[in-house]
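Sharing a chain and its predicted structure for anyone who wants a worked example. Both blocks are below, sequence first, tokens second.
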Amino acid sequence: MSLYACRVMVVILIVYYSWQGHTEKVAAALAERVGGRLEKIEPVSEVGMFRKGMMAAFGMRAAIRPVQADLTGVDFLVVATPVWSQKVPPYVNEYLSQVSGASGKPFSVLVEMGGSGAEKAVAIVRKSLEAKGMRFVSSATTLESEVDAGQFGPAIERLARTIAEAPAPAA
């Protein structure tokens, strides 16, 4: 049963990009915990890792397939992203640029990484969504090694708790 079971009809959208499956795994675990709906950010075309890293480092965007970016019917957004070059992937940047219908709505950020850069990645997502009038609630970080070992549960649990305790958006 989700943490939101006591709330009526709360729509939690968890949008994620995952290159090697780590971010997808933690996003799915969070969705199960909070009763959220998953939406995957998918690139129109893939490029090599070096180019992806450079695009991330320079804050560039890259084309993505259609994904729900209009948050009109959504009560809470979670953006789950890997960290590349201490930034977010170009596909996540593109998603953030497309978000609409978001003013006044709460959001959280879930970052998954190999080693460092979580704070910078969270700051990028925060700045983009707060500029659209959204309200930051919380963030969490998981490490690839924790995901590979199946030891990311406590981080997901803490994030789920902050989502459940967040005030509902104003009607």
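Comments welcome. The chain has one domain: 18-165.
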